[in-house]
């Protein structure tokens, strides 16, 4: 793991404490091959050898930070460059054959059933063309000492990788070349950009620090800074089926907006534990996951949540839909399958069970 990370909890929560301010990178496009050449070209111009993720039978039981669907396959990424995938909704896992990094990977997304991207420490972007079985470098900037925390593609060709201190790179040709830029002209914020997502209407939101959310309504060409009622860090967010958006983060704080980010209402998460991931299972059911074993279940579309605290009390940073009646949470112990309702989860893995108060009192 990158030596700038203070401890495993900070990694899971994505509140990374970096040892140095991000170095400014020239506004030059880098091809995937040129990215390798430029990043490795040290020691008198000789390339450093690429370190590949080590094959391990325990890869699915080590720290996993993010997961996404590639068609019917689930692909998860995490510490030491580990990438694992499951074709049976989380019952068994296979490690990717080739991953050209041992850096911690923090996010993953798929544009098609086969084409996907992952990002992580050392400002690395990886690309797969075979649903996660093999990967190649698309961008790499270890000199910046800045981790990417999230990746988003608003089309097959146009995407973004972003992370600590507002480091933000963009591709317009499907990852062949990348250019570093600011969020918007004249916007010189250096907040950590922790989680990006796109709504049904096409707006792009980024969950950031100090209660700030960034929003783009022009396909990412520019972003507006929005100050929510909260003043702490948001670690992620998700679009909801009714057109609203939710962001969540430290100390159980979550907010939702039904007017494209103009106004925000606090969500009753039923907890004071920090929240790092979430998924909507269907119109009524939303699940959140976070630190100290927190898994929150909502049956009213994400307005209120019932907390189930897993007996392991470990940190979780992502959750996806599993087989019928199941979800899969990802975190310190890797991937864990559990029921998709609070009542069943409490019986299966819960140490405590607290029901959200719809009145908010």
- Mean pLDDT comes to 87
Q: Helicity, in percent?
A: under 10%
Q: What profile does the largest beta sheet have? A: 5 strands, antiparallel
Per DSSP, what share of the residues sits in E-state strands of 2 or more residues?
A: 35-45%
Shape: globular
Strand order of the largest sheet: 1-15-14-13-12
Supply the helix-strand structural class.
mainly beta
Give the low-pLDDT segments.
1-46, 353-361
Give the assembly state of these chains: single chain
Return Rg in Å: 19 Å
Helix count equals: 3
Counting DSSP E segments of at least 2 residues, the number of strands comes to: 31
In whole angstroms, how far apart are the ends? 43 Å
Helix and strand topology:
Layout: H1 8-13, E1 30-31, H2 32-40, E2 41-42, E3 46-47, E4 64-70, E5 73-78, E6 83-86, E7 94-95, E8 105-110, E9 116-120, E10 124-128, E11 136-140, E12 148-153, E13 159-163, E14 168-171, E15 177-180, E16 193-198, E17 204-208, E18 212-216, E19 224-227, E20 234-239, E21 245-249, E22 254-257, E23 265-266, E24 275-280, E25 286-290, E26 294-298, E27 306-310, E28 316-321, E29 326-331, E30 334-339, H3 342-348, E31 350-354
Antiparallel strand pairs: 1-15, 2-3, 4-5, 5-6, 6-7, 8-9, 9-10, 10-11, 12-13, 13-14, 14-15, 16-17, 17-18, 18-19, 20-21, 21-22, 22-23, 24-25, 25-26, 26-27, 27-31, 28-29, 29-30
